[in-house]
Design a protein that fits this description.
CATH class of the largest domain: Alpha Beta
CATH architecture of the largest domain: 3-Layer(aba) Sandwich
Order of helices and strands: EHEHEHEHEHHHEHEHEHEEEEH
Helix content: 25-40%
CATH superfamily of the largest domain: P-loop containing nucleotide triphosphate hydrolases
Number of helices: 11
Structural class: alpha/beta
Largest sheet: 7 strands, parallel
Number of strands: 12
Shape: globular
Strand content: 15-25%
Length: 353
């Protein structure tokens, strides 16, 4: 691995806190030149916008590459490899590359892509970090355990096997070198211990577990693992078996893994007048329509600061992050993510107030 630029893959389910983890890492990078590749499900770059113009020293817009043409594990040839090549070809290449996948991406095909001839000799997977929403998994919402399967079976009379959500979660755990139990402060000590014990039982030996609040994990912990994960693919077994090993005659992006089970769409509306009332409206809409994830930006009245809205299930977080740009003034832009079959018309009407 001598001479190769290390890359860290950060994966995790919808709303687990990947972007918050990356923000904390950047704020504490201490001069390390970190380039980011951000993949989002849908073309409104909420996570990318949170990192671009963030005001963090050493993090410029040129250091953030957004891939929004589809799930990163499905667009390896078209998007991911060219993005890596562009970063490696810079006059002053980064010390480290961090890849934040969408909440629907399978990590194994992405790690496999580091064996492509175009990049194999120049970059290596330092490690795969899976971020877990501890409260959600403890409640069985996005887990592979019996509680999660029962909850998902109750909404589908035809379901008699693992759902795409649970399989996706298992794949993200199976590929991990480090598992971040994020939002651990929302659990009791006993709940946290039980959750870690349960997850440890289903992963490879030697996987590190880190407990975190608000993604506060030191870059010294996240970066520099030196794993070389692309050379260790057999141990990172996949629940899904639709992937083709890449060779010179076959593209690696012909697999399918149930993205049709999910859908995403945008909702735009005018400025909001009251943060609390709007948050309550969002929570009510999520509950009424079984939305998995909602995120976006809003202007509040005449306030000059941009309001960030992040919701996972019925739990919502809002905060002001920076001044509005000219293009953002007078607008509220939201992304809604859920399982296929969402009533877009009703959801849009509800969020319009």
């Amino acid at each position: 691995m001598a001479g190769k630029i290390p890359a860290t893959v950060i994966t995790g389910f919808l709303g687990a806190g990947k972007t918050t983890l990356v923000q904390h890492m950047l704020k504490n990078a201490n001069g390390k030149r970190i380039a980011l590749i951000i993949n989002e499900f849908g073309d409104l770059g909420i996570d990318g916008d949170l990192l671009k113009g963030c005001g963090i020293e050493g993090c410029t817009d040129d250091d953030v590459v957004e891939l929004s043409n589809g799930c990163i594990c499905c667009t390896v040839a078209e998007d991911f490899v060219p993005a890596i090549e562009k970063l490696l070809g810079r006059e002053n290449p980064p010390d480290h590359i961090v890849i934040e996948t969408s909440g629907l991406a399978l990590p194994q095909p992405l790690v496999r892509a580091f064996n492509w001839p175009e990049i194999r000799s120049r970059v290596t997977v330092d490690g795969v970090v899976t971020v877990v929403d501890s409260e959600a998994v403890n409640a069985g919402r996005f887990a592979h355990n019996e509680a999660a399967i029962d909850a998902q079976r109750s909404s589908d009379d035809m379901l008699d096997h693992e759902t795409p959500l649970s399989e996706l979660f298992e794949d993200q755990l199976a590929c991990a070198d480090m598992i971040i139990l994020n939002k651990i402060d929302l659990l009791s000590v006993d709940q946290a211990n039980e959750l870690e014990t349960s997850l440890r039982a289903g992963v490879r030996s030697g996987v590190q577990f880190i407990r975190a609040e608000m993604g506060a994990v030191s870059p010294r912990t996240l970066l520099g693992m030196g794993i070389g994960a692309e050379d260790d693919l057999p141990s990172r077994h996949e629940v899904h078996h639709h992937h083709h090993e890449h060779d010179d005659n076959e593209d690696d992006h012909h697999h399918e893994h149930g993205h049709d089970e999910f859908e995403t769409f945008h909702v735009s509306r005018a400025v909001i007048d009251d943060v609390v009332a709007f948050a309550n409206l969002v929570v009510e809409t999520i509950r009424d329509h079984d939305i998995l994830r909602l995120k976006g930006f809003a202007q509040v009245g005449n306030k000059p600061m941009r309001l960030v809205v992040q919701a996972v299930g019925p739990r919502i977080e809002t905060y002001f992050d920076r001044p509005l740009t000219a293009d953002e003034k007078g607008k509220t832009n939201l992304v809604v993510i859920g399982q296929a079959g969402l009533d877009r018309v009703a959801i849009t009407k509800a969020l319009a107030g």
